């Protein structure tokens, strides 16, 4: 899922310094799972804002709410009720949610409450690691399920490079060299010859090189929308 | 003596704190004691709200690790105190204003001593703050 | 054809070559590079120029290569994939070739993280192997996208780097093979200090047949200092420095000299390894060492390189530096390039066509095979679609078969009527009993439990009220389920006994007995119901269990519940003193049995149910009279005075009121008194302090004490030496904790009664039961001394405040009074079984019911 992290409180405060009444809006999707923007985090951020502003001598009224998701126009509809009632919204959803709010509700001043980072796995509570770059052209069928686009610092397709030492990446010593792992695994499966073929350069268009990525499934679109 | 008369908030579990207000007569502060079924139930929001409502320091008290009635509740409280401290850092307050204390179960004296120690620490912050002004 | 580079010429003719490396400056000064080139000229065959090595910004490799060429030295340009995408790479390569650069080393490049611009976005559009392939493509006249290069193609002698010591070690030669396959013609290795390991690597390459296809140059670096050697050993990934090298440097007096010697030694060694075609000396920032090394290694002098200059730069430079050569060289340039290039172009045209034709055919073949492959996958797609449809059809057909299974499920409800029949069967039995009872009452006259306290005066008031109700009860009996019916037999029994008031209180026996014995043997039940006692013949346990070994069912407790004395004088009663679970007389003893106390209020109750209040209505206004009635008429052995009026949320009467009431009650009766406060911790402190003054000398019990007010109240109790009620909210640990606190205050355990805050039937009875049981088990079997304290249960209050106790008689809920009585009695009985030692109840009949049952249970 999408992993995000709370933005520092001073930055959020800077965004809302002119306001006296705001809404902190959470999301029960990805950000809730990575403990950055769910119900609990909404109350923590709201309380932190209130505390900071009280200490500054500029009290602020902070409303709290959490939607099921913010990446779906239908689930954002309850926002209509807040229009005109709050001066700004600090959304703790990932960048997708904040952008969608900005698209659909241009009058609402929406500010991001988290920095959205990567697609990661929840290895254990409090530990999330990137596993995929969303390059749109999956190649891990040939690398035993381990993705070098995401997990090799140099995105090598004909790895490993000369800096792979002790199974560790020279750029990120805290990370294993993913090519080392791929070689070992394919070797164990007796499929090492696959790596002897030269991998052609990647088409980076599907990875965002082409600009904004859109996906449409005509077979799902009912005429006239939902 | 105005400087010394501030409010401290104590968030604790049933088993750590038996004392009543009268035991703290040596400590010239107003104490707000809130008891929870377990220290692990104390949320970061509770700690921050206590500061917002005027406390100069928040003491979170839980049973010694390994003796928590519910297993690891006090350890969870300790982690939450860390989270709350992070926010204090970002806001610009001394992070030690929220502190975790592990107390022997049902040991009133231990608890009182720790409260006094905490009071002294907060007093330091307060005096320093006033000096700067 | 293209002129080969000098390096390529030497290598292809089997000569042992020497190359070196130059690091460009971090400024725009061309002189630095030229100076370095001058140092190396004549000692090396070609020199590498690094491309922003370690991601630190320096003059670009291409620009430096041109400057090197101006000094008459052949450059090896290095290109990394870190900073350029394939468009930039191809552009630079075309440019490099146009400028006359012929040697190219293809690298992936160090990550920006290592350099001085870590925030830069790393490109890595390609990796080194893809780059090699791209360069070969350019050589062959193809851009990366397959498009044809029209005109002069770039020519490069393609090289790559390899690290023989990186991991996975076994995979390195294979990767080298990939590079060769992609088009690499020469390799420069990473710095070698561990010659043995390098030898193994070369051996493996030989096995793979690579040594015929590629020229391998061993990388050599003289360690400039001990610090540098250690840094390389510990901090540079991919470098292996054996300890001997470190030792040699440590022992050496002149480190630099030793460094050079080390380099020379290694050169000598690797020269012997088959397949090594040269050395690549990397003495970055110590270029002066290179000539020395080359000389000592016996590799001097080098072959003269044919002069070569980059096309445009030279003219200007040469003009400035040397006058004479200007003319000569210019001429040459003008002549040769023109001629040569033209020639080249012409020559190439012919092979161009041929190659292109071949290539065209190849492309055509590729396209056709692609189309075929697509057709195949189309077919496969069609097939899977068909399969899917077939499966769907099958499933739909199959689903019809699923329904019969549901029919089977329906069969279960049919079983229920069977159970109902069982019910029905039992009912007639009960009816029979009813008849018998009606017959027998005549024999009742002798009532063993006539209590002398009964006063005939008051009786007439109550009797007529009781009787009609009792009569009414008869009819609905039959409709109600078992238990209620059994219980209702009681009033029937009493009816004919209209003689004495005693009936009212007593003889509600039969039913409990029926209940008990019905369970094991429902059919045998119909026996003579004794009036004033439990029905049936009692068989002692010793008889019933004679076939069982005693240790199978006996478990003696290790602890004992303390005995608490309530009241003083000859009316004092003792509570507790049990050494076993209640009523387990085969395992221990209950010294004092279960005691009862009647509850009275300090004010007139407004909302008591009719079925209860009718017994006390005449005395509601006066607690003293009320207490008296309980004792004299109903035989109370203790009174519990509930100070509900002092509750701040109710009437909030002052402590003085409580004091007055207490005084009155104390004067009216001489049985032990229990004073139960409103339950509001703060208020109770005030009130009980006042009341203790009055009741203290009577040895009355005061309470409830909770954690919040335990200090003050404990002190009060100790002052008057009265027992206390310690009240905890249905929690084992809190109960124990409170006992400990009270003990810490100085109150001995045999002055404490535990109130576990009981719940009435339907309002938490089971929970209370389980908590009390756990406490009692801990006290008796787990040596938990702090819990070895009797229980006090305030049942009356809890039961009679429920909705169900107050609902009127109707078809659904049954008869109001029995309902109330049964609720209270059941609660009392259940809690007594759980360990209750002192029960505070209200309805006289429910107390009688309980007493009768306990009497029965007390028979061993």
Description of the molecule:
The complex is a heterotrimer of chains A (226), B (133) and C (860). Chain A has 226 residues and is α/β, with parallel strands linked by helices. Chain A has seven helices and seven strands; from the N terminus they run βαβααβαβαβββαα. In chain A, the strands form two sheets. In chain A, strands 3-2-4-5 form a four-stranded parallel β-sheet, with helices on both faces. In chain A, strands 1-6-7 form a three-stranded antiparallel β-sheet. Chain A starts with a strand and ends in a 37-residue tail after the last helix. In chain B, strands 2-1-3-4 form a four-stranded parallel β-sheet, with helices on both faces. Chain B is an alpha/beta fold and 133 residues long. Chain C is built from 30 helices and 18 strands. Chain C is an alpha/beta fold and 860 residues long. In chain C, strand 6, helix 7 and strand 7 form a beta-alpha-beta unit. Chain C has an eight-stranded parallel barrel, surrounded by six helices. At the A-C interface, helix 7 of A face helix 5 and helix 6 of C.
What distinguishing features does this structure have?
heterotrimer; A: 226 residues; alpha/beta; 4-stranded parallel beta sheet; B: 133 residues; 4 strands; globular
Tally of individual helices of chain B: 3
Strand order of the largest sheet of chain B: 2-1-3-4
Using only C-alpha atoms, the radius of gyration of chain B works out to 14 Å
Number of helices of chain C: 30
What's the total count of β strands of chain B? 4
Envelope shape of chain B: globular
Please tell me how large the radius of gyration of chain C is. Answer: 55 Å
Strand content of chain B: 15-25%
What shape does the CA trace of chain C take? elongated
The mean pLDDT of chain B is: 84
Overall mean pLDDT of chain C stands at 78
Strand content of chain C: 5-15%
Number of strand segments of chain C: 18
- In percent, how helical is the residue content of chain C? 40-55%
Tell me about the biggest sheet of chain B? 4 strands, parallel
Sequence of secondary-structure elements of chain B? EEHEHEH
Span of the ends, CA to CA of chain B: 17 Å
Q: What is the helix fraction of residues of chain B, given as a range? A: 25-40%
Distance between the termini of chain C: 122 Å
């Amino acid at each position: 899922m999408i992993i995000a992290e709370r933005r520092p409180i001073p930055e959020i405060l800077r965004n809302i310094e002119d306001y006296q009444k705001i809404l902190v809006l959470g999301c029960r999707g990805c950000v809730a799972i990575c403990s950055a923007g769910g119900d609990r985090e909404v109350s923590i951020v709201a309380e932190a804002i209130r505390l900071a502003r009280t200490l500054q001598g500029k009290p602020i009224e902070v409303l709290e709410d959490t939607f099921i998701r913010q990446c779906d126009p239908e689930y954002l509809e309850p926002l209509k009720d807040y229009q005109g009632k709050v001066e700004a919204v600090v959304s703790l959803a990932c960048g997708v949610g904040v952008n969608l709010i900005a698209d659909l509700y241009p009058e609402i001043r929406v500010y991001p409450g988290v920095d959205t980072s990567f697609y990661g796995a929840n290895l254990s509570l409090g530990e999330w690691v990137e596993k995929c770059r969303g390059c749109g052209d999956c190649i891990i069928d040939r690398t035993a399920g381990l993705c070098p686009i995401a997990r090799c610092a140099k995105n090598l397709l004909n790895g490993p490079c000369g800096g792979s030492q002790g199974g560790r990446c020279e750029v990120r010593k805290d990370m294993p060299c993913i090519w080392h792992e791929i070689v070992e695994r394919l070797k164990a499966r007796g499929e090492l010859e696959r790596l002897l073929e030269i991998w052609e350069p990647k088409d980076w268009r599907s990875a965002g090189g082409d600009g904004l990525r859109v996906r449409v499934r005509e077979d799902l679109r009912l005429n006239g929308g939902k | 003596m105005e400087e010394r008369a501030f409010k401290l908030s104590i968030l604790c579990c049933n088993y750590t704190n038996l004392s009543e207000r009268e035991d703290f007569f040596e400590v010239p502060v107003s104490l707000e004691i809130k008891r929870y079924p377990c220290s692990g139930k104390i949320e970061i929001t509770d700690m921050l709200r206590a500061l917002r409502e005027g406390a100069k320091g928040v003491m979170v008290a839980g049973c010694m690790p390994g003796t928590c009635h519910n297993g690891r509740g006090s350890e969870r409280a300790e982690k939450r105190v860390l989270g709350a401290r992070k926010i204090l850092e970002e806001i610009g307050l001394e992070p030690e204003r929220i502190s975790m204390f592990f107390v022997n179960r049902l040991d009133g004296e231990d608890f009182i001593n720790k409260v006094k120690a905490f009071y002294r620490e907060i007093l330091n912050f307060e005096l320093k703050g006033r000096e700067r002004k | 054809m293209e002129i080969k580079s000098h390096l390529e010429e030497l290598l292809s003719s089997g000569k042992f070559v020497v190359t070196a490396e130059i690091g460009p400056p971090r400024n725009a000064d061309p002189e630095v590079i030229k100076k370095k080139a001058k140092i190396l000229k004549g000692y090396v065959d070609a020199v590498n120029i690094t491309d922003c090595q370690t991601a630190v910004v320096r003059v670009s490799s291409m620009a430096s290569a041109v400057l090197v060429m101006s000094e008459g030295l052949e450059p090896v340009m290095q290109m990394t994939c870190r900073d350029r995408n394939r468009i930039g790479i191809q552009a630079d390569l075309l440019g490099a070739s146009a400028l006359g650069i012929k040697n190219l080393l293809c690298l992936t490049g160090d990550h920006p993280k290592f350099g001085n611009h870590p925030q830069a976005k790393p490109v890595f559009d390609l990796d080194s192997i893809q780059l090699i392939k791209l360069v070969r493509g350019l050589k062959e006249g193809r851009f990366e996208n397959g498009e044809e290069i029209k005109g002069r193609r770039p020519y490069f002698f393609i090289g790559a780097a390899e690290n023989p010591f990186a991991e996975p070690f076994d995979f390195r030669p294979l990767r080298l093979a990939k590079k060769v396959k992609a088009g690499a013609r020469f390799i420069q290795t990473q710095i070698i200090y561990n010659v043995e390991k390098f030898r193994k690597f070369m051996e493996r390459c030989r096995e793979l047949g690579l040594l015929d296809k590629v020229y391998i140059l061993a990388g050599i670096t003289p360690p400039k200092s001990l610090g540098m050697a250690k840094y390389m050993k510990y901090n540079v990934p991919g470098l292996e420095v054996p300890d001997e090298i470190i030792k040699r440097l440590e022992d050496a007096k002149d480190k630099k000299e030793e460094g050079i010697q080390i380099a020379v030694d290694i050169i000598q060694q690797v020269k012997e390894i088959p397949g090594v075609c040269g050395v690549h000396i990397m003495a970055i920032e110590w270029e002066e060492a290179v000539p020395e090394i080359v000389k000592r290694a016996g590799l001097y002098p080098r072959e003269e390189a044919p002069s070569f200059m980059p096309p445009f730069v030279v003219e200007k430079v040469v003009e400035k530096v040397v006058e004479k050569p200007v003319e000569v060289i210019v001429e040459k340039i003008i002549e040769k390039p023109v001629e040569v290039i033209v020639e080249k172009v012409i020559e190439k045209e012919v092979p161009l066509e041929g190659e292109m034709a071949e290539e065209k055919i190849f492309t055509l073949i590729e396209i056709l095979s692609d189309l075929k492959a697509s057709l195949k996958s189309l077919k496969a797609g069609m097939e899977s679609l068909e399969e899917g449809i077939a499966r769907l059809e099958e499933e739909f057909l199959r689903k019809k078969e699923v329904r019969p299974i549901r029919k089977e499920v329906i069969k279960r409800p049919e079983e229920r009527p069977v159970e109902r029949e069982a019910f029905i069967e039992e009912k007639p039995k009960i009816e029979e009993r009813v008849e018998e009872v009606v017959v027998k009452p005549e024999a009742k006259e002798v009532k063993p439990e006539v209590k002398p306290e009964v006063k005939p005066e008051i009786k007439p008031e109550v009797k007529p009220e009781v009787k009609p109700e009792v009569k009414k009860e008869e009819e609905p009996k039959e409709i109600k389920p078992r238990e209620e019916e059994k219980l209702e037999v009681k009033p029937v029994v009493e009816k004919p006994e209209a003689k004495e008031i005693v009936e009212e209180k007593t003889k509600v026996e039969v039913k409990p007995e029926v209940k008990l014995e019905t369970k094991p043997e429902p059919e045998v039940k119909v026996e003579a119901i004794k009036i004033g006692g439990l029905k049936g013949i009692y068989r002692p346990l010793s008889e019933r269990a004679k076939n069982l070994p005693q240790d199978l069912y006996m478990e003696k407790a290790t602890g004992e519940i303390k005995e608490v004395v309530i009241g003083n004088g000859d009316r004092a009663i003792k509570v507790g003193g049990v050494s076993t679970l209640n009523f387990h007389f085969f395992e221990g003893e209950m010294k004092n049995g279960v005691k009862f106390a009647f509850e009275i209020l300090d004010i007139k109750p407004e909302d008591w149910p009719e079925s209860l209040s009718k017994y006390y209505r005449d005395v509601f206004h006066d607690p003293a009279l009320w207490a008296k009635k309980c004792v004299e008429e109903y035989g109370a052995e203790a009174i519990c005075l509930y100070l509900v009026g002092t509750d701040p949320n109710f009437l909030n009467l002052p402590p003085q009121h409580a004091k007055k009431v207490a005084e009155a009650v104390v004067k009216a009766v001489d049985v032990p008194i229990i004073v139960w406060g409103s339950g509001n911790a703060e208020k109770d402190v005030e009130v009980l302090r006042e009341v203790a003054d009055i009741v203290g000398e009577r040895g009355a019990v005061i309470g409830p004490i909770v954690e919040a007010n335990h200090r003050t109240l404990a002190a009060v109790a100790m002052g008057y030496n009265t027992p206390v009620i310690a009240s905890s909210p249905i929690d084992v640990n809190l109960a124990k904790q409170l006992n400990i606190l009270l003990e810490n205050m100085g109150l001995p355990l045999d002055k404490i009664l535990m109130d576990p805050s009981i719940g009435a039937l339907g309002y938490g009875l089971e929970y209370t039961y389980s908590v009390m049981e756990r406490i009692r088990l801990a006290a008796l079997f787990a040596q938990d001394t702090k819990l070895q304290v009797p229980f006090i249960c305030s049942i009356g209050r809890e039961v009679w405040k429920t909705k169900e106790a107050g609902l009127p008689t109707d078809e659904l809920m049954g008869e109001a009074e029995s309902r109330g009585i049964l609720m209270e009695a059941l609660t009392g009985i259940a809690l007594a079984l759980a360990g209750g030692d002192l029960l505070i109840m209200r309805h006289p009949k429910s107390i009688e019911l309980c007493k009768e049952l306990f009497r029965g249970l007390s028979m061993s």
